[in-house]
Amino acid sequence: MWNTILATLHDEFSDAPDVAQLTRLLTRLLLAALLGGVLGYEREHKGKAAGIRTHMLVALGAALFVLVPEFDGMAVADMSRVIQGIVTGIGFLGAGAIIKHRSEEDTQGLTTAAGIWMTAAIGVACGLGRESKAVLSTLLALAVLAVLPRLVGRDRR
């Protein structure tokens, strides 16, 4: 009986057959969570509703959604359908972050929604193994979120 249970458990967890593939999986997921956390920390530091945990989970989830089919051998051309689903789903999540008040000028959450969308794209890049593109995109997004408002603020004064 125990041999059967152990054999079944081994079979269930054997989708990462070698150390190299397991390392690749772990690296991509950890990087997605880390980069999402960087953007989330900036948003949380500014007191926004979608903070570090939200951004980390969005990036991690997006990475996992592309990692699973890729590791199962899905063709790159077919991956576009998976990515379309991620973009659509994140669009709904971002829409929930937008609050429109009575006037058109009084709308909140657009930058948070765009940040969540960008975080998902960074997660997709990590999941597909495009780590340098993900890191560069995170740095650019961080510049838009943290540096650009300071520059715009100087112009307004």
UniProtKB/TrEMBL annotation:
The keyword Transmembrane applies. It is found in: Cell inner membrane; Cell membrane. Keywords: Cell inner membrane, Cell membrane, Membrane, Transmembrane, Transmembrane helix. Residues 29-151 form the MgtC/SapB/SrpB/YhiD N-terminal domain. It is a multi-pass membrane protein. The keyword Cell inner membrane applies. The chain crosses the membrane at residues 20-40, 52-69, 81-98, 110-128, 134-152. Belongs to the MgtC/SapB family. This is Protein MgtC. It comes from Roseateles saccharophilus (Pseudomonas saccharophila). The lineage of its organism: Bacteria, Pseudomonadati, Pseudomonadota, Betaproteobacteria, Burkholderiales.
